[in-house]
Amino acid sequence: MKEIKKSENTSLVPAESIAQEKLISLKNDDVKIMKKKWADALNVSENDVEKYIDLYNAKVQGKLHKDGRKIKNEKNEEVMLNGVGLFHILDYGYMYNKESLEALKYWGINCIRIPAYINYRVSNNTGDITRSERGLVTAFDEHVQEMDRIIDIASELGLYCLVDFHILEGDGDINQIQEIADKFFNHFGSKYGKQNNIIYEIANEPFGTTSENLFKYIKHENEIVRKYDNSPIILCGWTYKDSENLSVYYSKYKEQNINNVFISYHYYTGEDIKYPQNIYRKTDIPLIFSEWGNFDGNPDSNTDSDGYTNMTMKYLEWWDDNKILNCAWMLCGGNYKYSLWNHELGKTAVAIKNGCISDEYLSNYGKLVFQSYFDNNIKRIKSNDIYINRKLDKNQNEIPGKQDIMSDMGKDNTTKVGRIPNAGHVKRYCLIIGIIISAIMVLVIVLKLK
Fold first, then answer.
1. Dihedral angle sign, alpha carbons of residues 387, 390, 396, 400
2. pTM of the model
3. Alpha carbons 253 and 211: distance in angstroms, whole number
4. Largest CA distance in the chain
5. What b/e sequence results for 62-84 when a residue is b if at least 16 CB atoms lie within 10 Å of its CB, and e otherwise?
6. Among 31, 112, 240, 373, which has the minimal tally of Cβ within 10 Å of its Cβ?
């Protein structure tokens, strides 16, 4: 295999010019901002935020399965997956670490899409690297190793992972790279098939493939994945570029009796929602959106996306109402106008890699996406029995369960502004102390009588 220079040795990796103490301070300040955001939204103490943050990730929802066109958890409840797509992992993998991925939870994000490009797509600052030098075709092992690293981190954090075989139109007919696909999904199926957080995207945009050839490919890769995972969530792109042909494609799709694979559609350029929405209403199409953006889909584009925002908000509302999986593209540390992260921070941008993710560290596009994800996640939490059945004292502070009372002693219990500090906790501690004093008095009396 051709020697490929690692991403840590390229010009894409900025020098960290901020002192470690400063980075720690920025991270601590950012966590406080995000915890307060959650506390305000849920009307709870900042100390109680953590118990709600993980409610809709893999730690709690567990193994997912396809039921018609819905994604459901182990309790057969519908699950909403709001995700973000990563970018070229051989260039920007240094940005995808435990700190930066863990921070996503503060915006209600519960899945990431990890792409492996078949042939490299030239990006900013890498014009000297040709299209074929850093894709799966010639750098298979490097991609797989980096994807494994990211998946292992995400799994520890409870994030669902979309393993994305990122074919593009320029890669030609997908059957010409069948051998690579087989090797790819045999690896991820055998290594992660028993985990509860893996989703398989067997083709991104196979526009260079006929529908007939794609159907053969879907059936073949479906069999490979199911050797290792008996109830996988499998996604696949389709062969047309515009949603007006979605009904045509779905008619062909149904004839193939492919009942266990979701059709992945990509929303860009403010495309009118009426086409995908109408077919979704009129049929049982298992539609998801594994990639979308409030722009034209070109990472180097200078197109102004403001005109797309109204339509984008309609999509976000529709996806949430129907619990349709969607992943916003792209979470990237490069100098791209349409990165969800803010690329205009200068040297402070390194704080993103260390887990800073409040509004200051997001682009305008990122703020739009993440705020929508956050609002919808808070709405779901407020309808969850864990939140509904929580016990409150007279000051609306959450009363911890019996197992929490003693463990809370000695903690700096931050409260929301305007509340009596820990009134519920103080009352219970006084009760415990009173019982102890009473027991001692009884013991003294008994000893005197003897």
1. negative
2. 0.84
3. 8
4. 97
5. ebbbbeebbbbbeeeeebbbbbb
6. 240
